[in-house]
Every structure is written in C-alpha cells, then in structure tokens.
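Much of our argument rests on the idea that a fold can be written as discrete symbols. In the encoding step, the backbone of a single protein was reduced to a row of integers, each denoting a local shape. This step matters because it turns folding into a mapping between discrete strings. For completeness, the protein is quoted in full, as a sequence line and a line of structure tokens:
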Amino acid sequence: MKKNTYHYTESGLMNVWLANGYTVRKTKYGEGVSIHDADGLQRAIAQALTNKPHLTGTEVRFLRKEMGLSQRGLGELLGVTDQAVALWEKKGRLPKTADRLLRLIYVEHDNGNAPIRATIQRINDIDQQSYEQIIAEETKGGWKTRMAA
C-alpha cells in the first residue's frame, strides 16, 4: 500500500488501510497512532464487509463483535451452536445462508431496526446470566414465569 497510509490491524482484519483520519504521534515508547473517529471507522468497515461476495472467518468475528454478540449469541440468532460459529471464525467457511443472514442482521442492527436490536440485547443479557431455575407463578391472567439463579 502507499507510504502515506496506515495498516489498521487493530480491528483484527489484515486487509484494512487508512488513507487519512488518523494522527501519528511520537511518544517516549515510539510512534503511536490516534484514530480520529474509531467508532465511525469500525462501523464503516462493517458496512463494507456486508457488500463483499463472501465473509472470511475474521470478518464473521468482526461483525459479531460489532453487534456485541458472543459466539453463543450469534449461534442462537442463526440457529446453530456456538461451536459452529467458532469453526466458521477459525476456518472461514460458513454456509451461504448463514453468511447472508449475518449480513442482513448486521445491516438491520446498524440501521436501528428496533426488533433486531431488542433481540440482540435480549440474547446478550441472557448470555451474561446463568439461570438454573424457572420460577412459575399462577396469576389471575394465567401462569407467569421468571428465571432465577
């Protein structure tokens, strides 16, 4: 790549180069790079990935992390196990339907689709909790359940 570009590997992707939007600073430890709008950059990279012919394993991981999902959470969204997601991320081969669905989910998430965002948030919340009991209570309106640790 050109000399006046910065190889942006902090994203975990090896094919991203910045033409501008960063500042190189000298520190007592060497050169440091400051990205002007890191969140905006991450979003722009994710949007570019949704337009590629197929996703690599590292790109699957990138999109998953951009949505704040664990491997388990993405697996739940796509109807597969967390081991399947881990294998896709490691080997870089995922079924065409999963590839397309992941792109669609990211685009809708990025566009602010409330049901998609709510579903992702609910999966993230569940993913961070470990429930062992389902407590059922009968009410006038019928049975209600809640989860307990």
